[in-house]
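subagent[fold] <- orchestrator: predict structure for attached chain, return tokens only, no commentary.
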Amino acid sequence: MSSSFNRTNWPIAAAMIQYANILPDGSSVQDQKPEEWAATLSEVTDAGFTEIDPTDSWIRLADLSLPRQQLFADLVKEAGLTIPGLSTARRSIIDPEQADENLAYSHRVIDTAARLGIKEVSFGLFYPLTPAQKAALWFWTAQGTVNPDDRETWTKAVSRIRELARHAQEVGIGLSLEMYEDTYLGTADSAVRFVQDVDYPNVGINADLGNLVRLHRPVEHWASMMQKVAPFARYWHVKNYYRTEDATSGMVVTAPAPLEFGVISYRAAIKMALAHGFRSAFLVEHYGGDGLSVSATNRNYLRRILPK
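subagent[fold] -> orchestrator:
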């Protein structure tokens, strides 16, 4: 990423997590007509965004035919948007049932990014939501599937990320690995250890601390986590949560918050990352309510606090 970025031109992409892949009538975004894709993209531009991440929970670009990929890219350009990063979700390359399929898909994501001029890709080791998580108001309040606590699976994960890193390096793409609970990037210490084991210059940490501070359990203080991962930070998902802890009962309660109001001080967190040379794009997210509009306020907040 450019060293000349400032608060006015830093790439800040809209996440598409508030848009489902399966539509109310049972059809898929994958099969929508161009004008239907364009209508969704216009909502993003109407919210003031100039960048978008076509998150694969909304549309799987890598699973479109090449002509359809190019059609989508042309619509993005016509909407006045660019794509600085492409994020995947719940497609772990160590998934007990879909590991090989997800690995092949991840390679297609890298090729798609290279084809469309997207410079960063975010991968994670987290699994599909469990039935209990799907039934909960906030899925993170129910226990999800945990990465196995064994060296063999850790080594397999490192090996497969290295494989993806080599591929990405060949085509000029950066890989950002998303912090997420109960995965090998589920704590700051583990995330750093994992990325150091991968040991590729184009691989870093997606310091999505929001995924951790929202948990209804004890977690390391966000500032301590950020200090550890800041030297490795690249393409960065940012969101925030209210979090309150009752020391007498041990009760923890969290809820989504606009970026400037939650428990994480992104003013301080970003300063830590910048001190270590962070120059990647941001992706602004928010769960609940009008996620796109809250993401737009998150973008505006970042514009106020990024360097002049």
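orchestrator: received. Logging for downstream: The longest strand covers residues 240-245. DSSP finds ten helices and ten strands in the chain.
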